[in-house]
Automatic annotation (TrEMBL):
InterPro entries: Alpha-ketoacid_DH_E1_comp (IPR050771), DH_E1 (IPR001017), PdhA/BkdA (IPR017596), THDP-binding (IPR029061)
GO molecular function: oxidoreductase activity, acting on the aldehyde or oxo group of donors, disulfide as acceptor
Keyword entries, A-Z: Oxidoreductase, Pyruvate
Gene: pdhA
Origin: domain of life: Archaea
Protein name (Swiss-Prot/TrEMBL): Pyruvate dehydrogenase (Acetyl-transferring) E1 component subunit alpha
Regions that span the bilayer: none
The Dehydrogenase E1 component domain, residue ranges: 39-325
Protein's GO biological process: branched-chain amino acid catabolic process; sulfur compound biosynthetic process
CDD domains in alphabetical order: TPP_E1_PDC_ADC_BCADC (cd02000)
UniProt key word Protein transport: no
Length: 367
């Protein structure tokens, strides 16, 4: 039986919270190097996140959406994609995008207000989607196009639990099911849609079971278990690409996890949740869980962990230096990097801003 045939009310897990392998679970067939890369990338994402929040607090970067706690879901799922596959992010998929080829400095530049950071030439990554769930029907449409063109790309679309309350989510899954698209719909259920808790989003026992309404399979996975996420995502990607008997190719994955930090750096989570809840979820942290697994297998020791930590700190520091070293973006860049060919309405807006700058000057207008 495929892991995708698991009852959507049951959670797939490989690693227990203490890093041991769950009884009866099968560890994914990855090499030692791939296991270490999974671990390193999660640690990199956590350190990058800490530095990015610090940069924002220092006024060196704009509003930023932290990802701490969600590393396993992002890294495990993105590692299941092949190079030709497409990643369709929301606005928090910094780690997933890194796995699929986006540089750290590119992510930094975008959140520093430079639209050139969202310029994704030669990468199979869609631009950041800040409007909630707007990317879900896009992913279904991309899958339809792949069907028409008879190509073998798979489209991995990320969104949060709050997105499942939007009409776009239902429309996207309906199109995916009707047109049997090679799409993996990946829900990062981090328990909070800004300040709205999971139980106020839906009366469904799980989000995964919503797939039943659209004739596709849904599976719930421990989103803080990188091996379980990889296992489920790889099965979904393989089915989307190759088919599997009479099963439709799309899959809805619900990765149950937690957002340790704020929704964005403009948010104060202490207003709507308790510290005890955060600490309870931190006991499930994916990074020490994966580290314990690798230490038990003799793959990691103190020396190698120290080497990885140092290399991560160097890589993030270099990315920050590079991102801050770029020429400060002008107001023109807000318009120049949105469309390949600027439409008339955008030219009108640019002309209006040019007139304001000419009348008031940059210092008066921008400071």
């Amino acid at each position: 039986m495929s892991v995708l045939d698991t009852d959507p009310r049951e959670q797939v897990q490989v690693l227990a919270e203490d890093g041991s392998v769950v009884e009866g679970a099968t560890v994914p067939d990855l090499s030692e190097e791939e296991f270490v890369e999974m671990y390193r990338t999660m640690k990199l994402a956590r350190h990058f996140d800490q530095r990015a929040v610090s940069l924002q607090r220092q006024g060196r970067m704009g509003t930023y959406p932290p990802l701490a706690g969600q590393e396993a879901a992002q890294v495990g799922s993105a590692m299941a994609l092949d190079e030709q596959d497409w990643l369709i992010p929301s606005y928090r998929e910094h780690a997933a995008s890194y796995v699929h080829g986006l540089t750290l400095e590119g992510t930094l530049r975008y959140w520093m207000g430079d639209e050139r950071g969202n310029k994704l030439d030669d990468l199979n990554i869609f631009p950041v989607a800040v409007p909630i769930a707007s990317q879900v029907p896009h992913a279904a449409g991309l899958g339809m196009a792949a069907n028409y063109n008879d190509t073998d790309e798979v489209f991995m679309c990320y969104f949060g639990d709050g997105a499942t309350s939007e009409g776009d989510f239902h429309e996207g899954l309906n199109f995916g099911g009707v047109f049997d698209t090679p799409t993996v719909f990946f829900c990062n259920n981090n328990q909070w849609a800004i300040s709205v808790p999971r139980e106020k989003q839906t009366a469904s026992e799980t989000i995964a079971q919503k797939a039943i309404a659209y004739g596709i399979d849904g599976v719930q996975v421990d989103g803080m278990d990188p091996l379980a996420v990889y296992k489920v995502a790889k099965a979904a990607v393989d089915r989307a690409r190759n088919g599997e008997g009479d099963k439709l190719r799309p899959t809805l994955i619900e990765a149950v996890q937690y957002r340790y930090g704020a929704h964005t750096t403009a948010d104060d989570p202490s207003v709507y949740r308790q510290d005890d809840e955060v600490e309870e979820w931190k006991a499930k942290d994916p990074i020490p869980r994966m580290e314990t697994f690798l230490r038990d297998r003799g793959v990691l020791d103190d020396e190698r962990v120290a080497e990885i930590t140092e290399s991560i700190e160097d890589e993030v520091a270099a990315a920050i230096e590079t991102a801050e070293g770029f020429t400060r973006p002008t107001t023109d860049s807000m318009f120049e990097h949105v469309y390949a060919d600027m439409p008339e309405r955008l030219r009108e807006q640019k002309a209006y801003l040019d007139r304001l700058q000419s009348k008031h000057g940059d210092e008066e207008l921008l400071e």
